[in-house]
């Protein structure tokens, strides 16, 4: 998708996804181990897949946001 001319971005996203995947597996291992199922780690994670998706969207035009909407966002 972004490989043409954006090699640094592609490598950065791959590195980020890999690190997030490793962190996710570590968290799952800690959760599974807390239930005493640490020895069954491989059977639980055998079908584990991670997917990173990117979406392209347009920013709203300048000045199109209403003030009352902005106040609602601030109050949340």
Describe the biggest sheet? none
Q: Give helix and strand order, one letter per element, not per position.
A: HHH
Mean pLDDT: 74
Class of secondary structure makeup:
mainly alpha
Give the low-pLDDT segments: none
Record the SSE blueprint:
Elements (H helix, E strand, L loop, with lengths): L6 H28 L6 H4 L22 H9 L1
Keyword list:
single chain, 76 residues, mainly alpha, 54% helix, elongated
How would you characterize the overall build of this protein?
- The chain is mainly alpha-helical.
- The chain has one domain (7-75).
- Helix content is 54%, strand content 0%.
- The protein has 3 helices and no strands.
- It has helices at residues 7-34, 41-44, 67-75.
- The longest helix has 28 residues, at 7-34.
Entry summary:
With 76 residues, this protein is mainly alpha-helical. 54% of the residues lie in helices and 0% in strands. The radius of gyration is 20 Å and the shape is elongated.
């Amino acid at each position: 998708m972004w490989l043409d001319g954006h090699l640094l971005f592609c490598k950065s996203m791959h590195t980020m996804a890999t690190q997030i995947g490793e962190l996710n597996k570590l968290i799952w291992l800690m959760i599974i181990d807390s239930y005493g199922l640490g020895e069954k780690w491989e059977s639980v994670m055998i079908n584990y897949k991670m997917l990173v998706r990117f979406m392209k969207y347009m920013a709203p035009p300048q000045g199109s946001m209403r003030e009352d909407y902005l106040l609602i966002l601030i109050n949340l």
